[in-house]
Specification:
Order of helices and strands: EHEHHEEHEHEEEEHHEHE
Largest sheet: 9 strands, mixed
CATH topology of the largest domain: Carbamate kinase
Strand order of the largest sheet: 4-3-5-2-1-6-10-11-9
Number of strands: 11
Length: about 240
């Protein structure tokens, strides 16, 4: 009998995970694929919370390059994360996975306000919770949001889902000789500037001893294997 290694996870998705080829806009088929993965995790009896980025719609740095105010550009990115959260919620509920979206920026017509104790209660009832709106503050990334929310809900691990099967010493898409790390310490990730997550997020995880597991979201059984404690991806921990 297979035994789960974790009982509650925070899954960090990039906005590009929902994007069409080339990364722009929203692809409902990709949302459907991700939803099936999440349903499989729920059927394992594991609580699932999600933070999703908005790179497929808007990035704050795009606004900066156009001369926009940094805070305004960041708020636009936070609003875009709610759009992605609603797409994923719709996809999950179409396959009978009860889901709630909570936003750090209040917009009661489309999402619950973020309330920590309510989020935990949803998880205890078996619902998937998607956190939108970032932290509600400019100058913070969705990586930092993921680390913060993971600790607030008592997650056992932060799963960073990417397009590659772990962390490498250089871009494996460009360098065929790139070396993959099976394990890293938080300090390694920071000092080597490996871009696992931003430095604020890694520091938060380090201070609170929250492991980060980087996996390939598109691998057939990559998420399931990690949750069962099988080898795969890259584990960043103490």
């Amino acid at each position: 009998m297979e035994i789960n290694k974790y009982s509650r996870i925070l899954l960090k998705l990039s906005g590009e995970a929902l994007g069409v080829d080339g990364g722009a806009s929203i692809d409902p088929h990709r949302a459907g694929y991700i939803s099936e993965k999440i349903r499989e995790v729920r059927e394992m009896g594991i609580d699932v919370a999600i933070v999703i980025g908005a790179g497929n719609i808007w990035r704050g740095r795009m606004g900066l390059n156009l001369g926009m105010d940094r805070a305004t550009a960041d708020y636009m990115g936070m609003l875009a994360t709610v759009m992605n959260a609603l797409v994923l919620m719709d996809s999950l509920e179409r396959i009978n996975v009860i889901t709630r979206v909570q936003s750090a920026i209040e917009m009661r017509a489309v999402a619950e306000p973020y309330i920590r104790r309510r989020a935990i209660r949803h998880l205890e009832k078996g619902r998937v919770v998607i956190f939108g709106g970032g932290t509600g503050n400019p100058y913070f990334s969705t990586d930092t949001t993921a680390a913060l929310r993971a600790m607030e809900i008592g997650a056992d691990v932060l799963i960073k889902a990417t397009k590659v099967d772990g962390v490498y010493d250089s871009d494996p898409m460009k360098n065929p000789d790139a070396v993959k790390f099976e394990r890293l310490t938080y300090l390694d990730a920071l000092s080597l500037r490996l871009e696992v997550m931003d430095s604020t997020a890694i520091s938060l995880c380090m201070e609170n001893k929250l492991p980060i597991h980087v996996i390939n979201l598109w691998g057939e059984n990559s998420l399931r294997d990690v949750l069962l404690g099988k080898p795969g991806g890259t584990l960043v921990s103490g």
